């Protein structure tokens, strides 16, 4: 009886407020605003909920339990994930650009579009940048300079299939984008954090697996038996790695070295087909160039992974590198450098197959 009476009283109060033109939302607004202001402040490591305590050497500028909208807009503000997000978004844009340049070989509409862009942004910019990066990237860039002209003049030449090349570009873009999304939204909630971390790990595994496609496919194009063995092996390793990492406990900070070992193991298994290919193509002059590219890739990935595991330099001066210069940002830059070096090698493999076809390789 008493509770009924209470309810009736509440209803009367609500009705009275409705009559005054106050909706529920408006009523709650001032209170929410106060709460939100408190929430959107950047916090210190000690104030973080347990699942976000990942790196104790980064002391401040954390976003914790932010609403999705605020997390999204934090793309444009400074916090300790800003450069983690931006490095991989820029990497994504670079790989999207490379994909468009290569797609333009085959689709006239894209060719027109890319042609328009290259008119607007002078090609010399690409050349200057590439020459500054030295011979490694310079050679790769020389392949992307004249996308439209090359496709027209090369129509009569034997053309190798493109899909393994695009599989790699797609894998790289997926990895870079899922990593960016993870760094942007991981601060929202425990559930989303766990989900995005898994997507991020899956992205890394996909990047590694898809990286194997161009070299394995083109090198062993005349030997489908080995092609199949290597591609199935690396794909199986990718699946096992992703399934292992689906278990939430592996996302914790203390499993950092374990995760790195799994991914590094996947990547390093590429040494076997690389040695095989080096022996099979002993007399091929382009062998050393591609090996140099792939050695650059391996060095970049391993150096990046070392930073990721060691958490250097923030370990030496905790709090000093919160916004810029901490290990994860350095790791991201090395990932992009490694992927670009691998792109350089993939372009050479592709051109080689365009030129020599299959019979000449044996
Ligand atoms: Zn990252």
UniProtKB/TrEMBL annotation:
Region annotation Disordered: residue ranges? 1-36
Q: Which InterPro entries match?
A: AdipoR/HlyIII-related
Q: Which domain of life is it from?
A: Eukaryota
Residues engaged in binding Zn(2+): 183, 328, 332
Keyword Glycosyltransferase appears in the UniProt entry: no
UniProt subcellular location: Membrane
Q: What's in the keyword line of the UniProt record?
A: Membrane, Metal-binding, Transmembrane, Transmembrane helix, Zinc
Bias kind Basic and acidic residues: ranges: 24-36
Give any GO molecular function from the UniProt entry.
metal ion binding
Extract one GO cellular component term from the record. membrane
| A GO biological-process term | response to sucrose
Residues spanning the membrane = 83-103, 163-187, 199-220, 226-246, 258-279, 291-310, 330-352
In what way does this protein cross or attach to the membrane? Answer: Multi-pass membrane protein
Q: PANTHER family, per this entry?
A: ADIPOR/PROGESTIN RECEPTOR-RELATED (PTHR20855), HEPTAHELICAL TRANSMEMBRANE PROTEIN 1 (PTHR20855:SF115)
Query: What is the name of this protein?
Result: Uncharacterized protein
The lineage is: Eukaryota, Viridiplantae, Streptophyta, Embryophyta, Tracheophyta
């Amino acid at each position: 009886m008493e509770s009924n009476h209470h309810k009736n009283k509440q209803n009367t109060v609500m009705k009275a407020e409705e009559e005054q033109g106050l909706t529920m939302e408006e009523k709650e607004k001032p209170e929410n605003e106060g709460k939100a202001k408190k929430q959107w402040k950047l916090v210190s490591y000690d104030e973080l909920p347990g699942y976000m305590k990942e790196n104790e050497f980064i002391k401040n500028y954390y976003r914790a339990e932010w609403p999705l909208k605020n997390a999204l807009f934090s793309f444009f503000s400074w916090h300790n994930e800003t450069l983690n997000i931006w490095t991989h978004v820029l990497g994504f844009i670079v790989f999207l650009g490379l994909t468009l340049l290569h797609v333009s070989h085959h689709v006239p509409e894209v060719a027109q579009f890319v042609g328009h862009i290259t008119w607007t942004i002078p090609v010399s910019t690409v050349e200057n940048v590439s020459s500054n990066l030295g011979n490694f990237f310079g050679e790769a860039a020389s392949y992307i300079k004249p996308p439209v002209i090359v496709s027209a003049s090369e129509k009569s030449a034997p053309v190798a299939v493109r899909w393994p090349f695009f599989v790699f570009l797609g894998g790289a873009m997926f990895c870079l984008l899922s990593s960016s999304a993870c760094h942007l939204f991981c601060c929202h909630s425990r559930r989303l954090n766990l989900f995005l971390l898994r997507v991020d790990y899956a992205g890394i595994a996909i990047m590694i697996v898809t990286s194997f496609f161009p070299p394995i496919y083109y090198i062993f194009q005349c030997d489908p038996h080995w092609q199949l063995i290597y591609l199935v092996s690396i794909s199986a390793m990718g699946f096992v790695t992703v399934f292992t990492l689906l278990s939430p406990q592996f996302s914790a900070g203390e499993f950092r070295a374990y995760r790195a070992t799994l991914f590094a193991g996947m990547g390093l298994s590429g040494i076997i087909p690389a040695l095989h290919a080096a022996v099979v193509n002993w007399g091929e002059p382009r062998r050393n160039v591609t090996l140099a590219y792939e050695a650059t890739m391996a060095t970049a990935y391993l150096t990046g992974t070392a930073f990721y595991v060691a958490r250097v330099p923030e370990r030496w001066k905790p709090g000093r590198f919160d916004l810029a210069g901490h290990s994860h940002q350095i790791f991201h830059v090395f990932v992009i450098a490694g992927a670009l070096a691998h792109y350089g090698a993939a372009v050479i493999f592709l051109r080689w197959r365009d030129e020599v076809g299959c019979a000449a390789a044996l």
